[in-house]
Each structure stands twice: as C-alpha cells, then as structure tokens.
Amino acid sequence: MKSLLFSFLFLFLFFLSHISASNSSIDTFLECLPSHSNPSHPISNSIYTPTNSSFLSVLQNYIRDSRFNTSTTPKPLAIVTALDVSHVQATVICAKTNGVKIRIRSGGHDFEGLSYISNVPFVILDMFNLRSIDVDIPSETAFIQAGATLGVCFTVGAGGHFSGGGYGNMLRQYGLSIDNIIDAEVIDANGRLLNRESMGEDLFWAIRGGGGASFGVILSWKINLVRVPEIVTVFNVQRTLAQGATDVVIQWQQVASTVDRKLFIRVQPETIQQGGSKTVQVTFIALYLGRASSLIPLMNKSFPLLGLQAQDCTEMPWINTTLFWNGNPTGTPLEVLLNRTSSRRPYYGKHKSDYVKTPIPRAGLETIWKKMIEVQLDNIVRMQWNPYGGRMSEIPEDATAFPQTLLILISFILKYELIELFISYQTLRFFLT
Ligand SMILES: Cc1cc2nc3c(=O)[nH]c(=O)nc-3n(C[C@H](O)[C@H](O)[C@H](O)COP(=O)(O)OP(=O)(O)OC[C@H]3O[C@@H](n4cnc5c(N)ncnc54)[C@H](O)[C@@H]3O)c2cc1C
C-alpha cells in the first residue's frame, strides 16, 4: 500500500513538474520570438495562445478530420501563424533553444493529425498565410508557397502534399508532383534559409517524398509547369457487384497501367445500401487529356467491359476537372476553389495507403468485397485504386524518396470515433497483411 502511495505521489509530482517546465519553456519561447524576427513584420500579430479569443478558431480552421477535434485532443501551447519568413526562423530557433516541440501545418490534411497534435507539449507553426503562387510563363515554372492549397482534394496543402510525394490524376503523363520540382526553399533546424544549391542534393532528394517535417520547414517549391490541352474529358461510371463489377475490375487491372498515358482511370469500390442490404459499388473515375471522340475508340479497344458511352463523357477545361474530382456538381463556379475551409464537417476518416504489384485474382477481389460488406455499423468503407505506368515507369525508383508501384488508398468514412478501433484491428489488418 505504501509503495502504491509513493508511486502515485511520484507520478503526481512528475506531472506537476512537467506542467510547470512546459509553462516556463513556453513563456521563454514566446519572449524569444520578437528578437529573432523582422521588426518590420511584428511577430506579435501572428501569435495565438489559449488566452486569445481566436485561439480555438485558428486551431480548428485547418483541422480536417473531426477525430482530432474533440475536447480531449491535445492542444498546442501556442500557434504561430507565420506572416513572414523571419517568423518561421524565429519559431524554429526559439523552439530549439527552449526545448519546445514544433508541429508544422500547411493544409492540415495529415491522415493522423500529425501537423496539429502531439503527446508532448508543443506549438504549431501554421503556414496557411504563406500561400503565394508566382507563375513565370516564359520559363513555364512557378514558385508555390507551402500554405497554398491544391490536389485532387483541393484543400490539401502544398507543404505536406509535395513533401509526401503528391499523386494526382496526371501522374501517368507527368509523374508525381515531386517529379516536377526543380528547387525548394527550406528553413533548417538552425533557422537558416536554404535553397537547392545551399541545402545540397541529399536533402533536396529527401524532402521530395520523404516527408518535409523530418528535415526542416518547407517555405516554397519551384516547379516545372506542365501543358494540358484546352479541353479534356472526364467520366464517372458505376457498376455494382450485380452488374458485373468484379469482371470489370479484373479487366481494369490488366489495362489501367498500360493503356495510353493520357488516360488515368481510378477505381473506387465502396459499400452502398441496395434493397435493404449492403453491397459493393465500384466507381470508375477518369481523366483523359484529349477529346471524347478519341477516348471512346480507345476505351472500346482497351477496356471494352466498362462499355463506355459518349453520354458518359463530359468535356471541359482542365481547371473545371478539379471540381469534378472533388465531387462538385457540374456547373459549380470555379470560385469555390478559393474557399480554403472544408465544407464537409463533421468528417471522421481513417485512411491507409498500400501498394499492389501484381493483379489481385478474382478470389482475392471477392474476399475484399465480402470484408467490406461485413464491416458493421453505418460507416462507409471506400478504397481508391490509382494506377501508375506511363511516365511513372520511366522514373527511376530512387530518383526521389517516394516509393513507387500501383497505389491503393483505403479510406473509412466514419460516423463515430469508436468505430475506428473496430476497423483498425479487424479490417485494416486483413487488408494490409
Ligand atoms: C481528403 C484527402 C484527400 C487527399 N488526396 C490526395 C491526393 O489526391 N493526392 C495525394 O498525393 N495525397 C492526397 N492526400 C494526402 C495528402 O497529400 C497528405 O496527407 C499531405 O501530407 C497533406 O498535406 P497538408 O499540407 O494538407 O497537411 P498537413 O497536415 O499540414 O501536413 C502533413 C504532414 O506534412 C508536414 N508538413 C506540412 N507542411 C509542412 C512544411 N511547410 N514543411 C515541412 N513539413 C510540413 C506536417 O508536419 C505533417 O507531418 C489526401 C488527404 C486527404 C485527407
């Protein structure tokens, strides 16, 4: 009993000392910031602590997954919403000297909330204000700051998306986002501003696909722009299991990575309710960098089982396809791309990526469908299968830090947080082993 009491007392004292240590570190961290930032851009305008009335809204603006937006989710001791490069440098230097952990956030789409939660006391360095995009048409290049948003999901941030690889629906024609990066600006752990030349090729290699936060703070990327035709074609066609989805997926596996590289067809199996019971519906979503008149014969020849018809296809300028891929109805004005906050709250998701190197046989597909249907409760289980091939097959595996092959993204859209545990242990383990 005595030893139990002693252990409890020890833990209590340890806890208290931990709190007071983190309180004093955060105080000295905050005091340190002005002396390391540019006086013409006062850093005081970008600091939010829990006593500030905007603290919670600043924190929550870029929390994209409601699993990590609860009263028990660990909160930062402060948020620095950098308005100037010197604010980034000051945050890094002052955090290092005061032993404060930094979480770096650009778009806030990290699957596990790693850009805004931590199990030790921490501050968030929020990059959303640093979001300029400078396009240079003559050289066909652009500088993109980390806080700019982009991607198939257009609220994903350039900071996390590019440093993690960045796949999009033109990857078969142009490779990943990182395959088009030619320079970057990074603040290192000593607060130094580096570019490709000063950081050296090793670090430049690592930040393209190896995750940015492991190496420094990405300020901006310089990328090569790619050309797209004035008009491109998209389609979104569904087949349920009863409509022969399994056969179509089998043929898709044979052609998706070898067909004309201008064509990208994503397969998206998900559970739906049909006639009072669950089944799997597979959506075939595609972008073709050309007109429908050349897509239809190409599909008839290479992928006849889908039975694509002219009326399934929609031609549009490439920029409008970003809305199509995001699921916005046809005719949605492009201005919604300027909306940086998520419209789908509350949203509970669990995502996991994996790779498939050889086609999944029919029996394997059928087992996957069965497992998807078996998942209980009201949650949606969705998988996204993104084919590579084309340009992706030409890029050496070690050109960047990103691993290459056919990518499968499994995602669970959850209604209740608890379901995640069930899925993680029962279903994910099945899918990923
Ligand atoms: C709904 C959804 C759709 C998605 N769609 C796609 C897709 O189509 N293609 C694709 O490739 N990926 C996609 N992703 C994955 C997404 O690209 C990654 O999760 C990416 O890391 C998110 O970047 P972010 O800046 O929005 O996230 P954040 O949560 O801000 O950051 C993600 C990670 O990068 C680090 N980081 C962020 N900014 C910086 C910086 N400036 N310097 C250093 N480190 C930084 C963070 O600390 C964190 O570890 C999707 C994710 C979701 C949730």
UniProtKB/TrEMBL annotation:
Residues 1-21 form the signal peptide. This is Berberine bridge enzyme-like 4 isoform X1. It comes from Spinacia oleracea. Gene3D superfamilies: 3.30.465.10, 3.40.462.20, Uridine Diphospho-n-acetylenolpyruvylglucosamine Reductase, domain 2 (3.30.43.10). The gene is LOC110787221. It holds the Pfam family FAD_binding_4. It comes from the Eukaryota. The keyword Transcription regulation does not apply. Its cofactor is FAD.
